[in-house]
């Protein structure tokens, strides 16, 4: 399952381009899920840019990531974007900011 999610995220990040296309430039900026070595271990959930999901993700990718019908997903994403939210996660996260993403979880 992880491989499928990675592929879906890669394709969203690359606007649906083939994974072996060397001319593709990633514009998906991922933040490390780990803090620096000096800090206590903190886990962060993946944050996905709403604008990029709306403009580049294939319907099948959205349905796979969010496990809902694509019409519902697109309406929800558009409503979130209209409220000023920038990021979303596919996980349950009690420390998620829709502008800054997951704020971290100490383990």
Give structural attributes.
107 residues, two-stranded antiparallel sheet, 6 strands, disordered N terminus
What does this structure look like?
Helix content is 37%, strand content 11%. Strand 4 and strand 5 form a beta hairpin. The chain has one domain. It contains 4 helices and 6 strands. By secondary structure, it is α+β, with helices and mostly antiparallel strands. The strands form 3 sheets. A two-stranded antiparallel sheet has the order 1-6. The protein has helices at 2-13, 50-56, 59-66, 70-82, and strands at 42-43, 48-49, 87-88, 96-97, 101-102, 105-106.
Q: Output the number of helix runs.
A: 4
How can the largest sheet be summarized?
Answer: 2 strands, antiparallel
Silhouette:
globular
Mean pLDDT: 75
Q: Provide the β-strand percentage band.
A: 5-15%
Oligomer: single chain
* Integer count of domains: 1
- Helix-strand makeup class: alpha+beta
Order of H and E elements? HEEHHHEEEE
What is the total tally of β strands? 6
What separation lies between the terminal Cα atoms? 24 Å
Order of adjacent strands in the largest pleated sheet: 1-6
The helix content, as a percent range, equals 25-40%
The Cα radius of gyration reads 15 Å
Low-confidence stretches: 1-28
């Amino acid at each position: 399952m992880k491989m499928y999610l990675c592929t879906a995220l890669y394709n969203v990040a690359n606007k649906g381009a083939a994974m072996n296309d060397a001319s593709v430039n990633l514009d998906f900026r991922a933040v490390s899920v780990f803090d620096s070595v000096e800090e206590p271990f903190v886990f962060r959930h993946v944050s996905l840019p709403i604008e990029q999901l709306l403009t580049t993700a294939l319907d099948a990718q959205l349905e796979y990531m969010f496990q809902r019908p694509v019409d519902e997903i697109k309406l929800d994403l558009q409503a979130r974007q209209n409220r000023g939210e920038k990021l979303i996660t596919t996980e349950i996260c009690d420390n998620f900011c829709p502008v800054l993403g997951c704020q971290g979880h100490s383990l």
